[in-house]
């Protein structure tokens, strides 16, 4: 079965860290561009970060630049999002997306809540 499964979300205090994982099954992530998106209540769907398939080029939204790091482990067929210095406004459901030409897959998301 082809699927993406996110994990690693949770409740964290401001300034804390979390590492999200996006694990693929049923297909290889090697050739896919992987993106992390987030959806917060009352806010638009936001692209947070993505990483290319080949040289591992990365992109970050201005809102997370310098705090989040995306990286991939092709041996584990997993992409990670390291989130440091978390802020209240980072609270959202984080979703993983994989795209290769016309093929794309979405995970169901993992909740990140930043609260004191």
List keywords for this structure.
116 residues, mainly beta, seven-stranded mixed sheet
Distance between the ends: 39 Å
Average pLDDT over all residues: 95
**Helical content (DSSP H or I, runs of 4+):** under 10%
Sheet-strand content, in percent, reads over 45%
Number of strands: 11
The helix/strand order is EEEEEEEEEEE
Query: Which stretches of 5+ consecutive residues score pLDDT under 50?
Result: none
Structural class: mainly beta
Explain this structure.
The strands form 2 sheets. Strands 2, 4, 5, 6, 9, 10 and 11 form a 7-stranded mixed beta sheet that branches. Strands 1-3-8-7 form a 4-stranded antiparallel beta sheet, with no helix packed on it. The chain contains no helices and 11 strands. The chain has strands at 3-7, 10-12, 18-25, 33-39, 46-51, 58-60, 68-73, 78-83, 92-100, 103-106, 110-114. By secondary structure, it is mainly beta. A hairpin with a 2-residue loop joins strand 9 and strand 10 (103-106).
Note the topology:
Layout: E1 3-7, E2 10-12, E3 18-25, E4 33-39, E5 46-51, E6 58-60, E7 68-73, E8 78-83, E9 92-100, E10 103-106, E11 110-114
Parallel strand pairs: 2-11
Antiparallel strand pairs: 1-3, 3-8, 4-5, 4-9, 5-6, 7-8, 9-10, 9-11
In short:
The chain is an all-beta fold.
